[in-house]
Amino acid sequence: MIRFESVTAIYPGHTARALDDVDVLVDEGEFVFLVGESGSGKSTFLRLVLREMKAARGKVYVAGKDVGRLRWGVPKHRRRVGTVFQDFRLLPTKTVAQNVAFALQVIGKPRAQIQQLVPETLELVGLSGMGQRLPDELSGGEQQRVAIARAFVNRPQILIADEPTGNLDPHTSDEIMGLLDRINRTGTTVLMATHDVGVVDQMRKRVVELDGGRVVRDQLRGVYGHSY
Amino acid sequence: MHLRYVFSETRTGLRRNVSMSIALIVTIFVSLTLVGMGLLLNSQADKAERFWGDKLQITVFMCNANSQVDTCEGEVTAAQKATIESTIAASPEVDSFYFQGKERAFETWKEVYLSQDSEQQEIYSTVTADDMQESYWIKLKDPEQFQGIKAALGEEQGVAAVRDLREVLKPIYFWMTAMKWGAIAVAGFLLIAAIMQVGNTIRMAAYARRKEIGIMRLVGASRLYISLPFLIETLVAATIGVALAAAAMLTFMYVVIYGMLRPTSTIVEWVDWQDSFLAIGGVAALGLALTLLPTLLMTRKYLKV
Q1: Cβ contact A106–B2 (<8 Å)
Q2: What phi and psi, each to the nearest 5 degrees, are found at residue A101?
C-alpha cells in the first residue's frame, strides 16, 4: 500500500537530510507506528506519503502510484489518504456535522451521499447525537474523534495520524487508539507517527523507528523502546 | 460541485473587507476609464488622420479682387493660372490635383458656416460667390514631402496663399497624441496599483481562510475548487469596475461627443458609438485579464496544492 524505495528527502534551503535512503514497505490493512525523537523524520515520512513534499531521491509509491510523478492528480491522491493531526484542525464556526460534511462537500460529493455518510461516520467514532455541537463545546478527545470522522468519512484506503494522542490524557488516548484500531479492522491501512510510549507498548503493532532520517528498527508487534 | 459553498465564500470574502473591495473596484474603475479614454483618443486620432488624409493636403488659393498679397494684382489671370497649373503638374511631389471654382467654394462655405449658425445667416447673406477664391487642391504622393511644391508655388504670381493642412493640424495632432499617451501613462500606473491590490486582496483572503484552505488541500479538493471563491471574488470586483468604466465612457460619449462636440464642430469626424463600444470591449478584456492573471498567479502562490 505504501512503498518507500531508497527515499532521501531534503527541505529546501537545508543541506541535512530529513530522510536518508529509507526503504519501507507497508502492506494493505497494516497498522504501523512510526516512532523516533523530534526531528527524526517521522513528519517528513508522512508528508511524503501525502505528497506535501517530494523526495529528493528515490521513489514513494502509495496505492500503486508513484506519488512523485503526480501533478494534477495530487488532490485525487489525497482523497485516498485521510489525515489526523495532534491539534485536530477543526473549523470553529462549523458544527461537528458540518466539519465532517465539509470534507465531502469540497470534493464535490452529492448531497444525498453526504447526508448518509456523515451520521454514519459520526456513529462509528462514537459521536452520534453530537452533530449539532460546536467544536468549542467538546472535550479534546471528542474533538479528535470529529477529526478522525472527517478523515475517514470518505473511506480512504490509508489513514495517516500525526501524534493524534499528543494533546490527550492517557485514558482518552486509549479511546482514540481503540477507534483507530477499529478503523484499521475495516481494512484501512493506518500509519501513525507518535511519541507516546504507552500507546505503542500497549497496541503491540508493527513499529518503524527513525533516527536522524534513517530507519533503525522495523519490528512486527514491537514496543516503543529497544526491548527486543 | 457545491456552488452554494463557493458563492457563500465569495460573499463573505467581499464583505470581509468592504473597504478593500471598494478600493479595488475604484482603482479598476478609474484606471480602466483612463485606458478607455486613451483608446477613444486613439480612434479619434485615426479618424482625424483619415478624415484629413482623404482631403487634399495642400490648397493653393488664387488671388481674387480683395487679395492683399505681394503676388496678387487683382483677380488672377488665365495666363497665371496656366503657369501655376503647369508648375503643379510638373512637380514630382504631386500625386494628383484638381481645380475648384468660385461656385463650388461658395457651396462649401455655406455648408460650413450657414448650417451651423442660423442666427447669423443675415450677416452672411451679403457674401456672394464672387468673394470666394479659386483654388487648386493638391494631393501629395507623400504627405511629408511638401516643401518643394510649397516654395515653388509661393512665388508664383496670382497665388494668394498656399495652405498646408499639416501645419494647421500639427498642434491638434500634437495635443491629441500627448493626451493619448498621458492617459495611457496614468492608466499604466493605476493598472499596476490595481494588480497589486488584487494581489493584496487575495493574500488577505487566503490568510483569513487559511484553516479552510488547509483542510481543503488535505482532503483533496481540486485546485480549481479551492481557488474558485478567490477567482469569483476578484471577478465580481473586476466586473463592477468594468461596468463603471463603461458607464463613464458612455456618459462621456453622450454628454461631450454627441451633446457638445458633434453638433457644434464639423471640422473633423468625431468618434461615434461604435468606437466607444470597441473601446469598452478592449477595456473589459483588459479588466478581466488584469484581475484574472494576478489572481491565478497569487492563488498558485498562496494556495499551493
Answers
A1: yes
A2: -65, -30
- Looking at the complex, does the CB of residue A40 fall below 8 Å from at least one CB of chain B? no
Residue B8: its chain A contacts at CB < 8 A? none
Helix (H, G, I), strand (E, B) or coil at B173: helix
| A17 beta partners | A10
Q: Between chains, do A79 and B220 touch, taking CB under 8 Å as contact?
A: yes
Digit-coded pLDDT (tens) for B151-178: 888 777 888 888 877 777 778 778 878 8
Domain ranges of chain B: 2-52+170-302, 54-166
The H helix count followed by the E strand count for chain A is 7, 10
Of B211, B221, B305, the CB nearest to A106: B221
Name which of B219, B227, B303, B304 to mutate to probe chain A: the one with the most chain A Cβ atoms within 10 A of its Cβ. Answer: B219
Contact B305 A74 (CB under 8 A): yes
CB A63 within 8 A of CB A19: no
Task: Quick: pLDDT tens for B179-215.
Answer: 888 888 888 888 888 888 888 888 888 888 888 889 9
Spatial strand order of the sheet with B135-140 comes to: B94-100, B135-140, B58-62, B159-164
Q: What is the pLDDT of residues B4-36, one digit of tens each?
A: 777 777 777 777 778 888 888 998 899 899 889
* Maximum distance among all Cα pairs of chain B, rounded to whole angstroms: 97
Question: Nearest CA to CA, how far is B290 from chain A (Å)?
Answer: 25
Alpha helix ranges (H) inside A22-139: 42-50, 74-79, 96-105, 111-124
The beta strands (E) that lie in A174-227 are given as 189-194, 206-211, 214-219
Residue B64 CB contacts under 8 Å (≥ 6 apart), including other chains: B75, B76, B130, B131, B132, B133, B134, B160
Measure the CA–CA gap between B91 and B82, rounded to whole angstroms.
14
- CB under 8 A, 24+ apart: contacts of B177-180: B177/B45, B179/B41, B180/B38, B180/B41, B180/B42, B180/B45
Specify the CATH number for B54-166; select among 3.80.10.10, 3.10.290.10, 3.30.60.50, 3.30.70.3040.
3.30.70.3040
Please tell me if residue A65 touches chain B, with a CB cutoff of 8 Å: no
Q: How far apart are CA B288 and CA B279, in angstroms?
A: 14
| Strand ranges for A86-205 from DSSP E | 158-162, 189-194
Cell 465531502, residue located: A104
| Subunit contact A78:B220, Cβ cutoff 8 A | yes
Can you give the pTM of this predicted structure?
A: 0.71
SS (H, E, C) A67-82: HHHCCCCHHHHHHCEE
Does A74 contact B at CB distance below 8 Å?
yes
